[in-house]
Amino acid sequence: MSFVTRGFRGRRRVDVPPDRVPPGQYVTADFPVLSASPTPVVSADEWRFTVTGRDGADRSWTWKEFEALPSEKVTVDIHCVTKWSKLDTVWEGVSVDVLLAEMDTTSGFARIYSYGGYTTNLPAQDITGGKAWVAYSYEDRPLEPVHGGPARLLVPHLYFWKSAKWVQGIVLDDVDRPGFWESYGYHNYGDPWQEQRYAGD
Amino acid sequence: MTSDTHLDGNALGGLFYELFGREMTHQQGCCDNCGTVSAFGSLIVCRGPGDVLRCPACGEVIIVVVSTPVRQQVNFVALRWLNIEGFEADAPIGD
Amino acid sequence: MAGTAVRGRLNWLLAEAVELVAETPRVRTIVFDVPAWEGHRPGQHVDIRLTAEDGYQAQRSYSIAAPEDGVRVVITVELVDGGEVSPYLIEELRVGDSIELRGPIGGYFVWEPGDGESVQLIGGGSGIAPLMAMVRARVAARSSEPMRLLYSARSLEDVIYGEELESLNAVDGIDVAYTLTRSQPPGWEGLSRRVDRAMLEAVACPPTAGPACYVCGPTGFVETAASALVEQGHPAARIRTERFGPTGGP
Description:
A: mainly beta, 6-stranded mixed sheet, 5-stranded mixed sheet, B: 1 helix
């Protein structure tokens, strides 16, 4: 073990009941910023969100149209693969069930695309049934660009790299295609409660 | 302006020294997306769960490094070539 | 510019803090004694590693702010609000404490006196640190490269190494200009806006002098200043940059 540094305590930590914390995680009051690309700049005018079904049919919303959709305020715990967790985070956004209402999501996979080129993948069943949102507000304020604004995917039951920032669209497919981190060494599914961080875990 | 969170290859100088066994920030690599040659220290670095190195000319991903407790996975996504200077080559293999 | 010779493994070394200097209310210089230190070049940095009792570790890079001097390694740290490592280094670390450090690291953002070429340094906020190693190296070597420094800070109170920089304006061949971007003292006659091409035309080395350019500071600052240098006419290949990320700048 390395030399212990006198007086160093690390990130501000929060004490919580252990059953709220997946294995290997610690709870922080900070909100660290991690990303695979520089923050993309997307104006409200150019922003579009598109869902594409397994038959290729698609549906798009402009920012105005998206804001007019029914939204929900949710309080969820989030878990980053780099070991920090935040509990009781408050978001507002549109349930993915609303966005995929006209599509067959009983089986198959979803590929998530973001402005800036980021991608991630997950089973279609993992973004439906009240498990995922496209969120545009965090802690009652518009989502900041560094945290994924204008809008990001929010899938709290999986490691937070699946909650793609700067989300642009969802494509449903019969085939599971690994996204960015999944292609480069991270786990294809990413369940924090089974500590599925890296490929092979 | 101050919301820019990316860094450059200088920030990964220690990691690359460990991976390659020598100083790497001045070594030159060629982006396979656009052909631009850049010093490692000038590559754009985005720190996610893993480290993403991007070409300063075209912005595309060149290398992704993922560190796990048991290995370093170096993904050579679009590195056409890498020049490593500063040591003598081995004698040619022959008869 | 050639890189460092191969030094073998980059081991973590124990560094003892022997001197602490309060540069500004938010900035501290720490002088470390590193017994196994083999020297370094101006512009290089070290990685610092802190380990908590439960095994949690945090690691950060800091530029070395002074040229080679036996086993002394000097860093200058700015307090990052809500940060993890800088509050420890600035508010907790005491003389006599030891931390782990590895280096020197860097073969791209380095400068050494002796080639006679002009040098243009542009620093924003705590980005002045590696540039200060270059300036101090030039002074110590009594070399003759024309060296210009443009230093962007929020206010006069945020200028680091202020007295030392002022004394350097009297040294032959070294010119220091400041731009204070958020507030200026009464009667301030110097620059007071963000670095742009017009400012460089006024105070920086002209492209015809063919200077080696070094830009360091927060990411946004570095990209703005580097673009301005290119607009002014400096070839991109003559501009070397070191980005410090989103915090700690003007």
